[in-house]
Amino acid sequence: DVKVTQSSRYLVKRTGEKVFLECVQDMDHENMFWYRQDPGLGLRLIYFSYDVKMKEKGDIPEGYSVSREKKERFSLILESASTNQTSMYLCASSYFGTEQYFGPGTRLTVT
Amino acid sequence: EDQVTQSPEALRLQEGESSSLNCSYTVSGLRGLFWYRQDPGKGPEFLFTLYSAGEEKEKERLKATLTKKESFLHITAPKPEDSATYLCAVQAEYGQNFVFGPGTRLSVLP
Questions:
Q1: Minimum Cα–Cα distance from A89: chain B residue
Q2: Is the peptide bond before B8 cis (omega within 30 degrees of 0)?
Q3: What residues in B contact A4, CB-CB < 8 Å?
Q4: How far is A90 from chain B (nearest CA, A)?
Q5: Using a CB-CB distance cutoff of 8 angstroms, which residues of chain B are in contact with residue A99?
Q6: Residues of chain A found within 8 Å of residue B57, distances taken between Cβ atoms
Q7: Tally of CB atoms within 10 A around B59
Q8: CB burial class (10 A; 0-12, 13-18, 19+) of residue A60?
Q9: Which residue from B32, B42, B100 is facing A42, i.e. has the nearest CB?
Q10: A48/B42 touch (CB, cutoff 8 Å), yes or no
Q11: pLDDT class for A1, splitting at 50, 70, 90?
């Protein structure tokens, strides 16, 4: 079974803090993705990576950065958290051209 | 621009009452269409991939079909445990990204 894990299920941070969200997959997938999901807005792609050290901006990259130093791990960084970044964050991974498998999500609240 | 719409936004069924969910898409060259199930507070769970018009996939009470402009997820004799949000996504030939629809929230009442 494919397994995608995320470092935290729930996270509460203060405005201005630097936040790290980590994602690990165990299927040797080339592609990894970070999404945020908000009521009424659906799933929106923040960043994705198709290889180690490679990254591409998605639809809403502003305020976020990513890091992929190892194939199995993809980190999302909020450089200075703001209240409008309160959301559910979902990580996914896939082989080239195939279905994405999602992690359980991290519910981030920024106060 | 690639787009995905889903209808209805929400659907309430009685247990055993069969129905269909619709996913309409616009994409410049379809590589694949994907169906997911999402329970509240959890990540989406992969259900099916469809690659070409006329293709069908089945899993328990669910059957997904594909035409050149839309896909249907047919639910036969649903049970309360089928209650979830069902998401549809498309992947274009030229990229690795998915475009997700807004989802259909299904409630099956006992």
A1: B43
A2: yes
A3: 43
A4: 7
A5: 32, 34, 46, 49
A6: none
A7: 10
A8: middle
A9: B100
A10: no
A11: confident
Give B61-86 as a DSSP string: TEEEEE-SSEEEEEE-S--GGG-EEE
Assign A87 a pLDDT band (cuts: 50, 70, 90): very high
CB distance B4 to B101 below 8 Å: yes
Determine, for residues A105 and B43 on separate chains, whether the beta-carbon distance falls below 8 Å.
yes
- Token reading at A61: 């990259």
**Residues of B with CB below 8 A from A108's CB?**
none
Which candidate, B76, B58, B84, B63, places its Cα nearest to that of B15?
A: B76
For B29, which DSSP code? S
Q: Which backbone phi and psi does B64 adopt, to 5 degrees?
A: -110, 140
CB-CB contact of A91 with A9 (8 Å): no
Cα A48 to Cα A60: distance, rounded to the nearest angstrom: 11
Which pLDDT tens digits describe chain B residue by residue (110 residues)?
A: 889 999 999 999 999 999 999 999 999 889 999 999 999 999 999 999 999 999 999 999 999 999 999 999 999 999 999 999 999 999 998 877 899 999 999 999 99
Residue range A43-58: mean pLDDT, rounded: 94
d(CA B16, CA B108): 9
CB contact under 8 A, A102 and B43: yes
